[in-house]
DNA sequence: ATAATTTATATCGTTCACGATGCAAATATA
DNA sequence: TATATTTGCATCGTGAACGATATAAATTAT
């Protein structure tokens, strides 16, 4: 009864904490541009492929649209993205980068490197990262199939 | 410019997603008892050591007290914990388990096992978990020292 | 073509997270 | 001892997350 409940034995707590701390690490790099970490994720998605409906963005980030919609509205208010109704399908809202949103990619060019290096350590190196990625991907895939 | 910004190359996104999905996995196991995942974490801390000041709980979970205080108040309203002023130090609020809070440990006895098994897969096994824990612990330690 | 169903997005309510700030008790300093 | 500083907790505001629900457009079935 004792051991299994120990906080130090919980994978979930490690993931939860690591996720929170890494988000905090992004904060000083993004806040100057009025960006939050989830908003930065949206930018990553749009930099890969501009002009996407809300649904595609949400699916790519594995978030619900009711999370993404208000987030996109805030980004629209900041002039980072634009939202327009779809032409073929009037239900869709197509989200695109504004000039400001595109320019942010240059401004944030050093962010991935900076955060990456702030995480590297003894056991997390360019050699071990693929293994870590693999395990996290497997965990995510496993939890996703359970969810369906 | 392209590659480093790819969502699939981001450690942060994997941690963020894995954390969210594992929290979602807890939800059906906890909601029947009116518990959220962060509240479950508080219970883990109190089951290890009853009667702790807010500060100790927050530090153990690496959260701020302004996150933990309202959370504890909700748990108090649910009758899961009690809060009383400290005797030596009148500033402290000592948080303790109620009978209901203690009984939840028996009721939730299967939760760690259930969640654990829902994560096990090809690359995440009893043999590989220690390595994963080590890497996550190192990442957390690295980010914590940067924060100070 | 009309009705039933599905799909895309949005709204609402609750609970975190957390930066900023306030306040009172405890401690350190003058 | 009086004053300054630190400490522990709380309040406030903002932005996620997400379950539940709503609404309108598109699709399918009758």
List keywords for this structure.
homodimer, 148 residues, mainly alpha, Arc Repressor Mutant, subunit A, three-stranded antiparallel sheet, 7 helices, 8% strand, globular, DNA-binding
Strand order of the largest sheet of chain A: 1-3-2
Query: Strand tally of chain A, please?
Result: 3
How would you name the oligomeric state of the polypeptide chains in this document? homodimer
Named at the architecture level, the CATH assignment of chain A is Orthogonal Bundle
Q: Which fold does the CATH topology of chain A refer to? A: Arc Repressor Mutant, subunit A
- Helix count of chain A equals 7
- Shape call of chain A: globular
Ranges of chain A where pLDDT stays below 50 over 5 or more residues in a row are none
């Amino acid at each position: 009864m004792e051991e299994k409940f120990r906080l130090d034995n919980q994978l979930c707590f490690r993931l939860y904490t690591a996720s929170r701390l890494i988000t905090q690490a992004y904060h000083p790099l993004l806040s100057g541009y009025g960006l939050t970490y989830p908003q930065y994720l949206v930018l990553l998605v749009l930099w890969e492929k501009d002009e996407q409906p809300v649904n595609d963005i949400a699916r790519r980030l594995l978030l619900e649209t009711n999370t993404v919609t208000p987030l996109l509205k805030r980004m629209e208010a900041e002039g980072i993205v634009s939202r327009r109704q779809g032409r073929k399908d009037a239900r869709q809202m197509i989200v695109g980068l504004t000039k400001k949103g595109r320019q942010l990619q240059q401004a944030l060019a050093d962010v991935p490197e900076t955060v990456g290096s702030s995480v590297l350590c003894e056991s997390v190196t360019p050699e071990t990262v693929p293994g870590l990625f693999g395990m996290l991907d497997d965990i995510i895939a496993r939890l996703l199939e359970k969810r369906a």
